[in-house]
Design goal:
There is one protein chain. The protein is built from 14 helices and 7 strands. By secondary structure, the protein is α/β, with parallel strands linked by helices. It has a single domain, classed as Rossmann fold, CATH 3.40.50. A 7-stranded mixed beta sheet has the order 2-3-4-1-5-6-7, with helices on both faces. The chain is globular, with a radius of gyration of 20 Å. The relative contact order is 0.15. Bound molecules: guanosine-5'-triphosphate and magnesium ion (MG). Guanosine-5'-triphosphate (GTP) binds next to helix 4 and helix 10. Guanosine-5'-triphosphate binds next to helix 4 and helix 10.
Length: about 325
């Protein structure tokens, strides 16, 4: 089986705009299930990788976001990228097509993620639509709702999520379906807010990581009427007030990763814009920032990679 990562160096040497125009896109496909931390580490050690971590209460829509990103990429250019391979193709297929077939329904459904103690990762190799054939590697982390529930309740459990240090983007989903219903609204906000609080309190976030609160299932919020929609800016203001000083770059988005078939065709699902921003490279750390960063002793190698990488970047920065 060919190896996408191994061919990358060769591509860097040979890919020119002319070559790109003449040659048909070559797509390497890798069979593989969702990756463990060790597999993910193997990818990060070989190539620069963007790690995007999705957090959120059970059922908030994390897996559906991953599945929809993969589905859109497999249909053609998406968010400025072309799909160019994956080491977790079977994993993606499992959360997309198999679920659809298994449910036998017209409306796709995402199966509940089986809770695990370890994060799992889904790999994407992408090429920029307008910029040659150099591959960009992205890891999407699908962490079970249970793991985040534990993290929310215990600083100790949160500290086990060491891979968060390495994340380029952290996306905390606020469940739109629960926001839309007055009886579950406050709990939905508290769940999302509690998760980010745990990460901040346990100092799990890299200061340069993008942190987004994402209102998910926008179609259901809109379907619930104007009063439900009005909750979104109010919730944003509340969360902004709470985190403004502790997470300066905090941003807010609204997405419908898998809108109901009945929802308006005019509704913007927001997924492409969101994915484009999550995959933007982080700025290298200022020298004084990386000098202050010390990985915890119990961090996995995958997390420590982040420090080694940024130490190198910092050393090369005049
Ligand atoms: N209408 C609508 N439903 C959605 C949307 N996104 C997700 N869902 C549904 O919400 C339910 C939960 O989504 P999941 O992606 O499984 O949520 P999760 O956060 O991965 O849940 P756990 O794995 O249990 O933590 C599924 O039935 C999805 O089909 C959306 O944009 N619109
Ligand atoms: Mg899930």
């Amino acid at each position: 089986m060919a190896d996408a990562i191994a061919t990358e160096a060769k591509e860097k040497e040979t890919a020119t705009p002319t070559a790109v125009a003449k040659e048909p896109a070559f797509v390497d496909l890798f069979a593989g299930t969702a990756m463990s931390a060790a597999d993910a580490e193997a990818v990060t050690l070989r190539s620069p990788v963007q790690l995007i971590v999705f957090a959120g209460a059970e059922g908030s829509g994390k897996t559906t976001v991953l599945a929809s990103i993969y589905e859109r990429l497999s249909q053609g250019p998406f968010a400025g990228f072309n799909f160019s391979g994956s080491r977790s193709l079977i994993g993606f297929e499992e959360i997309c097509h198999l679920n659809r077939l298994a449910s036998g329904s017209v409306q796709p459904e995402t199966q509940r993620t089986v809770p695990t103690e370890e994060a799992t990762y889904y790999h994407l190799a992408l090429t920029r639509e307008k910029a040659g054939r150099q591959r960009h590697h992205v890891l999407l982390s699908a962490v079970s709702g249970e793991l985040f529930r534990l993290a929310k309740n215990s600083r100790e459990d949160c500290a086990r999520l060491t891979f968060l240090h390495r994340a380029d983007a952290i996306v905390v989903l606020v469940d739109g379906a629960r926001l839309a219903a007055p009886e579950s609204r406050e709990n939905a906000i508290a769940d999302a807010s509690g998760i980010l609080s745990s990460f901040v309190d346990a100092e799990m976030l890299d200061a340069r990581a993008r942190v987004d609160f994402v209102f998910s299932k926008l179609d259901l919020v809109i379907a619930a009427g104007q009063s439900a929609e009005n909750v979104l800016p109010k919730t944003q203001a509340k969360l902004e007030a709470k985190f403004r000083t502790r997470v300066p770059g905090l941003r807010f988005r609204r997405i419908a990763a898998r809108p109901d078939a009945s929802s308006s065709a005019d509704m913007k699902d927001g997924l492409a814009e969101a994915f484009a921003s999550w995959t933007e490279p982080k700025q290298p750390a200022a020298r004084e920032t990386w000098l202050r960063c010390v990985p915890p002793n119990n961090a996995r190698e995958f997390s420590k990679f982040g420090w080694r990488y940024f130490e190198r970047v910092g050393r090369d920065t005049p």
